[in-house]
Amino acid sequence: MLASIKEKTKSEKVLLMLSIFGLVAMFVYVTLIWSELPETIPRHFNSKGEPDGFGGKGSILVLPFVGLGIFILTTLLSQIPNAFNDPDRVTEEQKHRLYIHGRICMSFLQTQIIYFLLYGVWQTAQVALGKASGLGIYVLPIFLFIIFGTIIYFTVRGQRMYRKE
Hints:
Blueprint: H1 2-6, H2 10-33, E1 40-45, E2 51-56, H3 62-77, H4 92-128, H5 139-163
Antiparallel strand pairs: 1-2
Helix pairs in contact: 2-3, 2-4, 3-4, 4-5
């Protein structure tokens, strides 16, 4: 049973590849535009998506490394079945299904965050290069809607899975 728990689902494999692609894209993009970046670039944006903090061009590396850190932590955490908080009275069968369900949720969140960071790197460079004025007013609400929507969806779905038996 432990071997079947550790085996990734097709969804997890696809999401893992998408996450890796997003991470690689961030680092490759920064490498490609590095010489074009001015010495001072935006490093923070307000709630309206306007730049309100500036730093050296090395600050653009924060987002790819944050993405890498999130990728490593979520990938490692998803390998620990006991890290998931299951209800008290749960059968082994339910525990197995809920663990896989939790891993898939974490994979979705990981991928969504990495692509949000990829957009942040790209848009930061666009602002620094004078090709854009900010992130845009809708970026943060859309990101929060997607993240919280995913969490709510998987929470409700997990509750239904638990109550079925």
